[in-house]
Amino acid sequence: MSAAAARPAADPRPGWRDRRELVLVAVTAASAGAVGIVNPGFLTVENLRFVALNSVVLSIVALGQTLVIAMRGIDLSVAPLMGLSAMVCGLLAQTHGLPLWGAVGVALAIGLALGTLNGVLVAALNIPPIITTLGTYSLFGGLTFLYSDGTQVDQVPPAYAAFGNAGPLGLPVPTPVLVLLLVTAACWFALGHSRFGRAVLAVGNNAAAAYNAGLRVAVIRIQVYALSGLLACLGGLVFVCYTGSATVTTGTGDHVELQSIAVALVGGTLIAGGRANVLGTVLASLFLSTVLTALVFLQVPPIWYSAGEGLMILVAVRGGTRRAAGRA
Amino acid sequence: MDMRAPAAADAATPRDGRRLPVGGWELALTALLVAVVAGFGAAAPGFYAGPASLLGLTENFLPFGLVALGLSLVILTGGIDLSVGAVASLSAVLAAQLWSRFGVDIWAASALGVAIGALLGLLNAAVILRLGIEPLIATLGTSFLYGSAAVAAAGAAPPSGFPASFTAVGTGTLGSLGPLAGLVPIQLALFAALAVLFSALVARSPFGRVLVMVGYSPDAARYSGIRTGRVLATAYAVSGAMASLAGLVLASYYDAVRPDMGDVLLLTAITMVVLGGISIFGGEGTVAGVVVSVLVLGFLRQGMLIAGFSDMVTTMLTGAILLASIAAKNLFNRRGTGLANQIWATIRRPEPPRANPN
Amino acid sequence: MSAQRDADSAMPGFYAAQGIRKSYGAIQVLKGISLDLKPGRMVTIMGENGAGKSTLFKILAGQVPPTGGTLRLAGAPVALASPSAAHARGIYLVPQEPALLPELSVAETMFVGALPTRGGPLGRRVDWAAMRARARAALDALELPIDVDRPARTLSIAQQQQVECAKALLRGCRIILFDEPTSPLTSHEVEHLFSIMRRLKADGCTLSFISHRMDEVLEISDEIAVLRDGVLVDVVARPSFDRARLLSRMVGRPLKAVPRRAASNARDEVALEVRGLSDGLRFADVGFSLRRGEVLGLAGLVGAGRTEIAETVFGVRPAAAGEVRLGGAVVTGLDCHAMIRRGLVYVPEDRARHGAVLPMTITENVTSGLLDRVRRRAGLLSARDEARISAAAVRDFRVRCAGLDQPLRELSGGNQQKVVFAKWMTTGPRVAILDEPTRGVDVGAKEDIYEMIDAMARDGMALLVISSESEELVRLCDRILSIYEGRVVAELSGADISPAAVARSYLTAAAPSGGVAA
Amino acid sequence: MNRRRRSLGGAALALALSVSPLFAADGAMPDTAKRIKVAMVPKLVGLSVFKANEQGAIAEAKDLNIDFLYTGPVTASAQGQVDVFNSLIARKFDVITTTSNNPTQLAPSLERAMKAGIKVVAYDSDVAPQARDFFIQNTSYPAFGKALVESVIKYAGPDAKIAILSSTPDATIQNEWIGAVKSYLAATYPKVQIVATEYGQSSPSQSLTAGLNILQAHPDVTGIIAPDGAAVVGAAAAIEKLGKTGKVFTTGASNPDAVRQYVKSGVIKETPLWDEVKEGRLVLYVARLAADGALKDNDTFTAPGLGTYEVKDKVIVFSEPLVFDASNIDQYKF
């Protein structure tokens, strides 16, 4: 403790290396530019539009994950939740013609209910988050299976497809991108400028101190897991609208839980909690989408795609660790 | 006062909790195991068709147990290894390719495979220690890398059709050792031997002692002169070696390799370790608990499948058991702060001794 | 008591505990405490470790519910369901080491749980400008020059406490409790804290604090309450303070005068020699030699670099320059694993973090110092041999415990420390570094530990003792080095050694350079 | 819920079969006296094509006095299938029918089943020959390869640049088909160039991403051969999203329900498959024959309502490819 007492005060102002958003924008632009030189097709508006669209679902889910990690938790169950929402909404639409607004309601209700379950298990029963969500990972995956009875969603009503691909009111920007912008703005405002979000960060910094400061830590935990569930299910709905498909392994098959953690961390959120970067998460997801698309344009054999992802995680997190190391 | 003089053992030789690594948790799990086996034996026709078939069921899940044993060491240090699945695939694929493309003897190739697994584990440790990255993230990253490498190494037609002596590991019994031994699958014998080894390792070996110490308190371990980096590296290497052993047993069991064959191992193995009573925060828990939990979850799954439940229902039940057991454990654990825990404490423990000067 | 008291007790800021009891299971920690805290007065709580001081404070601050008894605020009974309920009633507990919110700014940590907001187009949002301005104002009011935009992780412990005081005022709390605030502080920092306390007192705040340091207590208190075994055994008001009486009340028996050690056991043979040692950061050019049987003290302010010197010698912290010789052989740069094998051991200051593994058993802790010496069978540790070593250690070091497999965390601080001693001394070291060997140890066990240290020296062990208590160094050491800001500034030996001389040796070094880092 | 859509209407419309039902009297005949237990284990339970097999199998089971069970893993994993086989062995099923995720990994478990007296009938995707009694091949590989090529090249032209979007690099049946596609191309359309091969991991969404990537990275591609149910859906969705309908053509191996919208919108002009519902019926018929021991390694038999089939070295070819297009797709619901 004597070491802490006399540690020289660090410069409180963030240097450029701390502006993770800028770094991500720079590397994304640089990689896109580099690929564009090799294959100009990469830089077409059409392609860039899809690079962005492809990142939307992961971004939405990862924003929920960002909130959870900011609170020093982790949510592995986002993947099956996303799948469950995609499956339930998709099947209801496909077989019962559920209108789109109804699907939005269904998705959000599922997310809130099951996310709250995660929160209660963590906050009230004191089960470590990684174990809680490992358990609910199996549970929610099972629910998807039981509900679908092995069928799949392979076509969605035109309203859904339009929602997933076109812009509203003839706007050139696809709706999923607008949804993402909205969610990002909401998360950015919440974490940066609302009492709730600051409380989340306080819990992530030091739950005991937050409790002593009068924050209802258990309630905040439950709310954050509920939000994470909500966003995972919103992601599932956007997924089923965008791709027009859902299977029993939607979400889990693509390891969305791991990808969402990865982009949150690459985006600059600390795994130890207490610091989050909403914009960074979205940009990291965009970066991932850029890199994965670029690999195709560069004709890299597909088997190495996931290796690229792994390297990206290690390099980015390594950059973040060095600066966090000063923290006792 | 000469502190170095050997003193006779205290007259009232105190019991040593770690000599017999069995506590309430392990006993509860054992009861659950008995209930599962007896329950399915009675209710699911085909589950019990003689001792040989019952023991034979273990062939279907013991590779998970092998991974769980290795993973136990890592989790005891307070770390985690998400790369076990990819390590299992990669090392099994590499061993199989050594055998099929380069004509290496299958047993030599297997030995090399285990060595490769240990090396991959060491690489994990290097990423964690040298780059200072949290184990969760480090092994997440390396699992992507190893997975890609496994796909690349496997090619379009991964090797299959191993020599019969090799496939016997996955599906054969110890029949040649006598009629009774014929009941015992080779996998089970392998697992039992390793279970005893790991149990002794953790409970009574110098390595196990420092492992637990590092798990409880890395700082205190370091100040006690323990080279914590080496301990961690060893734990991750053993985890890697055990994962690759599991991969090889799977290869033998399926008589083939695939680059994604290890993927299923991870979540189940973590569940086994945690249900076995090893704390995700490190230090606490026994290998005996993990061994029993491997059997509980394994027989449960086999029983459910034989009773006609689908794969997914079985997985759901596993998840529910994990949550319920950890919740129950939290309520009653001495270290917990829950209400039930306090009640439990007053019932169970006399007043802890306080050292007040008279 | 009577009418006057009744009238007083209705005053705002008059906070009274009446018959407060607290049990954990079958253990009674507080057995009916009645205590009055009054506006404009500082009431100090003294008592041995385990007397129930911290528990009492936690109850007063709403962190722990009492098992029985009543709390009265300005005469009316109050029930405090949580710390925030206490804050709402103006009661604030400043913890010894305030819990950090490392990634948040100083201003935000002051307002956490009560961030100011303003309306905006998107609904209510945190009013950062107002928050910063108010935080700055609160710090200015206490004349604390701390930048409110700094991340909280960059604050020193003293600064964290200062911020906590400002925080209490910000929340309108005028009943402020300090749980042992001074022990991690340097004496300059203590002075600063006291000046804040005096200012608060003059301002009419109700104050109370816990301390072990008699000099401090006598300096700052208006009233002293002594707790022993959960019972309030004495309350004395200012003019009638009496050091000896307080001490005897605390321990429940008259205390012998602290003796100066009788005779040196030092032999000629040099066991440890340090030359020009620097770590390039916290200390520089430190040199000394330590002979067998000698007890060398390191005196200085907390934060002077003494622990860092010890850790560097021991090998858990890298050296930038200099040389360490152990029994004549150069051992600079070796890690502590190698040092232990060469007979150098270190009893660290932070027992819970570095010294012992509290969830592990006594036996496991005792043998963890050097597992090599435990006999093996087939590569496994012999349980019998371990039990033998552990039993001998428990006996020789007078550890009071229920059994050898009792987890260490169930023992009192003093007994834990004895186990840590046993862990190292049973490895047969030639040199031992003892860093604050009696920190968190009650008075009775303290004396045991002193006797053990004497015995070790008699056995020819070379000992380096770091202590912030001058009396302790005087009691134990043959020779004392004074460390100030990472440098040896004085050496005392023989008849020169006295508590006053020890304190003077580093404080005079402090004086010329002006203010020590705040 | 999918069951509601079950209809045998499509199956009733007989196809032109390679073998006409003339020699029915010679063939093996089932003996339906004894009730038997037959399990159908698809690659995974979540795919509509396999549900279509189940649909046919359930209908046939009634007529053949069979206790029928449709079960399988949730993900397309050989391990999951083996778990299911093991449980079926323990439950003493008479016949296991399966389409394999991996021919070699399933073999030991199926061989154990055969040792326990259980008949094994593989369909769709084969297992190692020693691990099954019979194999029902959907269509012959060269025929299917030809159908795949024709249904794209007809529209994209004989000098088109095309891409292949498959499931995984080691998927047996896909690799057989891709091999057949390549040899047919070499022989018939030597000017056609395959410029990219990507994999969608049998996931519609990953196939979509892969499809988008192919089209963006290779703007001159005018045809995508996607011989996998998920892959063709992904490729079609990608073409539609990029507004390249009518400029790029795709084809694959998908059930009509999954591609109906794309066939109608013209993204897919033609896509070959076979009648999955009927195939399910045939699987059960062969299962019954196998259980009765009535079928020899080389044999012929006539299944009522299905046609006459020839067994050649334990392999039965189910049918010629059935090519769906806008004119006929509504006759098939599966």
From TrEMBL, chain A:
Pfam families linked to this entry: BPD_transp_2
Coiled coil: none
Subcellular location: Cell membrane
GO MF annotation list: transmembrane transporter activity
Keyword Transferase assigned: no
One annotated Gene Ontology cellular component of this protein: plasma membrane
InterPro entries to which the protein is assigned, alphabetical: ABC_transp_permease
Known partners and oligomeric status: The complex is composed of two ATP-binding proteins (LsrA), two transmembrane proteins (LsrC and LsrD) and a solute-binding protein (LsrB).
Name recorded for this polypeptide: Autoinducer 2 import system permease protein LsrC
Organism: Lichenibacterium minor
From TrEMBL, chain B:
UniProt cross-references to InterPro entries, sorted A to Z: ABC_transp_permease
Keywords: Cell inner membrane, Cell membrane, Membrane, Transmembrane, Transmembrane helix, Transport
Membrane topology: Multi-pass membrane protein
One GO cellular component term noted in the UniProt record for this chain: plasma membrane
One Pfam family hit: BPD_transp_2
Membrane-crossing residue ranges in chain numbering: 27-49, 61-94, 106-129, 136-157, 177-203, 231-254, 266-297, 304-328
Principal localisation: membrane
Localisation per UniProt entry: Cell membrane
A GO MF label: transmembrane transporter activity
Subunit text: The complex is composed of two ATP-binding proteins (LsrA), two transmembrane proteins (LsrC and LsrD) and a solute-binding protein (LsrB).
Role: Part of the ABC transporter complex LsrABCD involved in autoinducer 2 (AI-2) import. Probably responsible for the translocation of the substrate across the membrane.
Protein name as it appears in the record: Autoinducer 2 import system permease protein LsrD
Organism lineage string: Bacteria, Pseudomonadati, Pseudomonadota, Alphaproteobacteria, Hyphomicrobiales
Automatic annotation (TrEMBL), chain C:
Xref: Gene3D superfamilies: P-loop containing nucleotide triphosphate hydrolases
SUPFAM superfamilies, per the entry: P-loop containing nucleoside triphosphate hydrolases (SSF52540)
Source species, domain of life: Bacteria
Record flagged with keyword Repeat: yes
Keyword Nucleotide-binding: yes
Signal peptide as annotated in the record: none
One Pfam family here: ABC_tran
Keywords from the UniProt entry: ATP-binding, Nucleotide-binding, Repeat, Sugar transport, Transport
Domain annotation ABC transporter: ranges: 15-254, 266-510
InterPro entries for this protein: AAA+_ATPase, ABC_carbohydrate_import_ATPase, ABC_transporter-like_ATP-bd, ABC_transporter-like_CS, P-loop_NTPase
Record GO terms (molecular function): ATP binding; ATP hydrolysis activity
Family: Belongs to the ABC transporter superfamily.
Protein name (Swiss-Prot/TrEMBL): Sugar ABC transporter ATP-binding protein
Taxonomic path: Bacteria, Pseudomonadati, Pseudomonadota, Alphaproteobacteria, Hyphomicrobiales
UniProtKB/TrEMBL annotation, chain D:
Keywords, sorted A to Z: Periplasm, Signal
Key word Transit peptide present: no
Domain of life: Bacteria
Keyword Iron belongs to the record: no
Localisation: Periplasm
InterPro entries hit by this protein: Bact_Solute-Bind_Prot2, LsrB, Peripla_BP_I, SBP_2_dom
Pfam families: Peripla_BP_4 (PF13407)
Chain ranges of the Periplasmic binding protein domain: 38-293
Region forming the signal peptide: 1-24
Cellular component terms (Gene Ontology): ATP-binding cassette (ABC) transporter complex; outer membrane-bounded periplasmic space
GO terms for MF: carbohydrate binding
Annotated family: Belongs to the bacterial solute-binding protein 2 family.
Assembly description: The complex is composed of two ATP-binding proteins (LsrA), two transmembrane proteins (LsrC and LsrD) and a solute-binding protein (LsrB).
Function: Part of the ABC transporter complex LsrABCD involved in autoinducer 2 (AI-2) import. Binds AI-2 and delivers it to the LsrC and LsrD permeases.
PANTHER family linked: ABC TRANSPORTER PERIPLASMIC-BINDING PROTEIN YPHF, D-XYLOSE-BINDING PERIPLASMIC PROTEIN
Name of the protein in question: Autoinducer 2-binding protein LsrB
Species this chain originates from: Lichenibacterium minor
Highest classification ranks of the organism: Bacteria, Pseudomonadati, Pseudomonadota, Alphaproteobacteria, Hyphomicrobiales
